[in-house]
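Quick one, T. Sequence first:
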Amino acid sequence: MRSMSCVHPLIKRLAVLIGAPLVLIGCAAPGTSVSQDALPKPGRLITVAPDRVNRLPDASRNLVISYVSSSFDGSNAIVAGQVAIPRTPPPAEGYPVIAWASGSTGLAPQCAPSTSANSARDASLNEWVKRGYAVVRTDYAGWGAFGPLPDLHGRSNAQNLIDAVTAAHSVDARLSNDWIAVGHSKGGGAVLWVAGLPERTEGRYPLRGAIAIAPTGPGVPKFMSGVMKGEPVATSGLPFVALTALNAKALNPAIDLQKLVSPQLQPHLDVLRSGCVPQLFSLPPLPPGRYLNAGADYDMYAKLLDEQDASALTMRVPVSIVQAENDETTVTSETTAQMVRSLCARGATVRFKQYPGNNHRSVIAASQNDAFDFADSALTRRPLKNDCA
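Structure tokens:
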């Protein structure tokens, strides 16, 4: 590897995490610093190395990469990601690509999806590899060297996924240009943002479809409004109040958390400042209550949440929306159906299916075979059932 004196701090952190030298693809001259303003255009691959932390077992190669993308404020950022290549020989048109957008794992550096295990997610991704798909993943902008982390910013997360796909083609020339975006929870919301960007159906790497599993949407602001009003809400969703509050603060520093959040929720904020989402569930459960305070800070908070809802976008490709009947988070059957109606009203092609007996996480596996069928149909241009019709 070249001298670390020319390397972005996130890349240094990656080298420590994977315990291996990184192959540096692009860098300023040794002895100079790399500013965000001096970064190459989004989609440029920066480093690549074997992934020794969070591999998919049936891949022939598991790689961790860093690449240029953009943050929520439009500035360039270096983002970490992963690429998994199948063992099977590529078809004539190249390995079909799915790009995975992870759900919320936390805000601290060690919570990045590439370094945190998730059995449901990883088992699902390995099944894609076994079926001959190359799997591309993003950690999203903000982890590592530079904060804040815009955890729920739909457009930024979407752009990070798009740029990961572009960078992955510099890793392995055998990838097909066509791709499918797949995401869960926050990632489900992100892939709907990908599908709603006009430029995604054009250019060198056209998106052919999006699979949104338990996607965040109108359920988030509705849930938080209920918390602010003191209405009874699902206690299993309360840990996510602190996550969205910290996220809003990252997006808008003018928000005063002392005014927005009640003192009873302070332990949740403290955990998330240095820990990951699973640690929240080890805290004593909070009964339903008024843990968000009305006022100017809540108004700014609510505005940011509303802006992340992809329901108002026009889908440029077919989308599959997956809902768990027993989802225990903010992604309720009612609010997801509301999202589908809004997308349909804007001319979308939507396959919408609810999975009885499943919760927010188990629905990933429950919907897997339907996801394979949807992806294959979208990539081969076969007619897709449109539940908007």
